[in-house]
């Protein structure tokens, strides 16, 4: 069964550093998303992306965050100047068609120290 | 803004029991509702997707129902097994969202003991 692949599975970074989280969505999917889950809290929406542009973003997704689809396969989330409160599990998801269900990746655990 | 609530927060049952997990949402104007399973420290595995025009979906021992008018969904697990132990998340989209942003509940943490 096709999968959404996320790398790395775990990343530790120092406060103030920039990180890039990578995702390879399912190949025929057109809609891409990032979510995050702070330990013990709900999964929260960050951003949706379609046709090479952001479709919707949450109040969490401020100027510190950016997304990019640099080529035909990767979808990245960049976090500039990381803060301790950015520590969370970050999930990438994709969907073939709207409104269809999502397929989520296994996540990247980001730890900011 | 869509709010999703799940009860109970935790459930511990002996193997073989039939279970009902509950999910409620505040805005009935949804595109769909999706149930996920999350194992500790892992990703989200989709279990069932119910479109807004549907009343229920079934997959193996799982059955999910949707009642938009009351803002409720239930996940029924038949003949539970220890391997079913995980957190079950309910997520709803709403029609106010451009691309079907999901709103998640906090989940029900299920433990099935032998």
Which class best fits the helix and strand makeup of chain A? mainly beta
Characterize the biggest β-sheet of chain A.
Answer: 7 strands, mixed
- Which H/E pattern describes the elements of chain B? EEEEEEEEEEE
How many whole angstroms does the radius of gyration of chain B measure? 14 Å
The proportion of residues in beta strands of chain B is over 45%
Helix content of chain A: under 10%
Order of helices and strands of chain A: EEEEEEEEEEE
Oligomer: heterodimer
Can you give a write-up of this model?
The complex is a heterodimer of chains A (113) and B (114). By secondary structure, chain A is mostly beta strands. Chain A has strands at 5-7, 10-13, 19-24, 31-37, 43-50, 53-57, 65-68, 75-79, 88-95, 103-104, 108-112. In chain A, strands 2, 4, 5, 6, 9, 10 and 11 form a seven-stranded mixed sheet that branches. In chain A, strands 1-3-8-7 form a four-stranded antiparallel sheet, with no helix packed on it. Chain B is mostly beta strands and 114 residues long. Chain B is built from no helices and eleven strands. In chain B, strands 2, 4, 5, 9, 10 and 11 form a six-stranded mixed sheet that branches. A five-stranded antiparallel sheet of chain B has the order 1-3-8-7-6, with no helix packed on it. The A-B interface holds A 6, 31, 33, 35, 41-45, 48, 50, 55-56, 58, 89, 91, 93, 95, 98-107, 109 and B 31-32, 34, 36, 41-46, 49, 51, 89, 91, 93, 97-106.
């Amino acid at each position: 069964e096709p999968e959404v692949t996320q790398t790395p599975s775990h990343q530790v970074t120092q406060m103030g550093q920039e990180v890039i989280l990578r995702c390879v969505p399912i190949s025929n999917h057109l809609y891409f998303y990032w979510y995050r889950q702070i330990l013990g809290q709900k999964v929260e929406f960050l951003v949706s992306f379609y046709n090479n542009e952001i479709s919707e973003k949450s109040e969490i997704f401020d100027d510190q965050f950016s997304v990019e689809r640099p080529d035909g396969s990767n979808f990245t989330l960049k976090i500039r100047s990381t803060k301790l409160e950015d520590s969370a599990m970050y999930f990438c998801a994709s969907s073939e068609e709207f409104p269809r269900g999502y397929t989520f990746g296994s996540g990247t655990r980001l730890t900011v120290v | 803004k869509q709010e999703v609530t799940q009860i109970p927060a935790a459930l511990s049952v002996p193997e073989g029991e039939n279970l009902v997990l509950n999910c409620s949402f505040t805005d009935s104007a949804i595109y769909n509702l999706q149930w996920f399973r999350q194992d500790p420290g892992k990703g989200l595995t989709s279990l069932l997707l119910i479109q807004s025009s549907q009343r229920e979906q079934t997959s193996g021992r799982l059955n999910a129902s949707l009642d938009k008018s009351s803002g409720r969904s239930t996940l029924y697990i038949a003949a539970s097994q220890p391997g079913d132990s995980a957190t079950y998340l309910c997520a709803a989209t709403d029609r106010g969202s451009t691309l079907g942003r999901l709103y998640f509940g906090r989940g029900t943490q299920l433990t099935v003991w032998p």
